[in-house]
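Chapter review: from sequence to fold.
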Amino acid sequence: MGRILTLAALAAALITPKTFAQEAAKTAVNDSLFALAAADSGMAEVSLSQLGATKATSPELKRFSEKMIEEHSRLNQELAGLAGHKRITLPRMVDARAQFCAQNLAGLSGEHFDRCYAKAQLVAHMEAVSTFEAEAERGQDPEMKALASKALPKIKEHLAMIKPIATKLEDHGSSVSER
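The C-alpha cell string follows.
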C-alpha cells in the first residue's frame, strides 16, 4: 500500500502543469557562463577533430573532422574576441572531460576509433546545440545572443552531418559484433 501511495505521489508530481523544463525556459541564462561553456566546447571540438583528421579510417569522418577544425576554430576566434571585449576570461586549455575523451580515443584504432569518435562528436554537437539555443533564446547580452544565434545554424548543420555517420558506424559495429 505504501509503495502505491509513493508511486501515486510521484506521478502527481510529474504531471503538475509547471514542470522544471517549463520554468527553466523562462529564466535568463548567464552570458559569462555561456561564453565559458562555448569556449570549452569549441576547444574540445577542435582537439577531437584534429585527432579524427589523423586517426579516422572513414574518408567521410576525415572530411567531417577537417570541416570541424576549420569552422570551430573560426567560431572560437570570434568568441574570444567578443569575450575579450566583455572582459570575460576564457579557458586556455580543454577541460578534464575533453582531455579524458581525447586520451580514450587516442588509444583506439580502426573501426573502433571511428565508431567511438563519431559518438563523441554526436554527443558534443548535441550539447553545443543545447548551449547555443539557450543563449540565443534567453541570453541577456545582445552581442552574446547575436553570436549564439549566428552560430546556431552551423552547429545544427554539424549535428545533422554527424548523426547519419554515427548511426551507420554504430549499426555496422553491431552487425560485426553479432557474427
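Two observations follow directly from the output. Confidence is low (pLDDT under 50) at residues 1-12. The chain has one domain: 29-171.
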